[in-house]
Design a protein that fits this description.
It catalyses: Endonucleolytic cleavage to 5'-phosphomonoester. The protein is α/β, with parallel strands linked by helices. It has 6 helices and 6 strands.
Length: 190
């Protein structure tokens, strides 16, 4: 697996704008490739509604720029936005790996607008949302095992910069916050 966090992500709007333009071109190239990667976009959302905390996760998976899978769910009022971001990435990778295997794809690209969550997946020390890295690290194994030509890339994407997949994941996460929580996710260990 490859982690891609641009070193300029915190150096101001000009650097972020340039990175966003480069990433737009890269995604356009992927979508026009005859053997495109399977691309997943994930997001988490937190809001207070009627005095209650609502936390949602969402992701969308695309091939050739067209959605092939999506998910939107609540994870309970005791979770944090960080739990949501971490779980969204882990669930997105899990589903993307299944779709990539079924389509004989050789590359997976996962995009999240939360660089701290991405970095935490490689942090072996105790931290919030500890369960998500376990899911995340195991998710690509069936896709990668026995296939040295296959690759998984996890990268930061600037949020709210007009990336269609990222905007879709954001809407799904917001929608997920407003439904009853999935029973298995209505509590958190952090």
């Amino acid at each position: 697996m490859c982690l891609a966090l641009p070193s300029h992500r915190s150096r101001g709007d000009n650097a972020k704008g340039k990175y966003a333009d480069e990433l737009r071109g890269l995604i356009r190239d992927y979508n026009n490739d005859p053997h495109p990667p399977v691309i997943g976009y994930s997001d988490g959302h937190a809001e207070v509604a009627n005095g209650c905390m609502k936390i949602g996760v969402g992701y969308v998976i695309t091939i050739h720029g067209k959605p092939v899978a999506a998910s939107s769910r609540a994870i309970g009022h005791k979770a944090s936005i960080y739990d949501a971001e971490m779980l969204a990435i882990a669930q997105c990778l899990t589903k993307t790996a299944r779709i990539a295997s079924a389509n004989n794809a050789t590359n997976i690209r996962i995009y999240s607008d939360n660089s701290a969550a991405i970095q935490t997946f490689w942090d072996l020390k105790r931290h919030a949302a500890q369960f998500a890295p376990v899911i995340f690290r195991r998710a690509p194994d069936p896709f990668l095992d026995g296939h040295p030509e296959r690759r998984v890339h996890i990268a930061w994407i600037p949020g709210h910069k007009g990336f269609k997949g990222n905007e879709m994941a954001d809407k799904l996460a917001k929608g997920g916050a407003n439904v009853p929580p999935t029973p298995i996710f209505n509590r958190t260990v952090t």
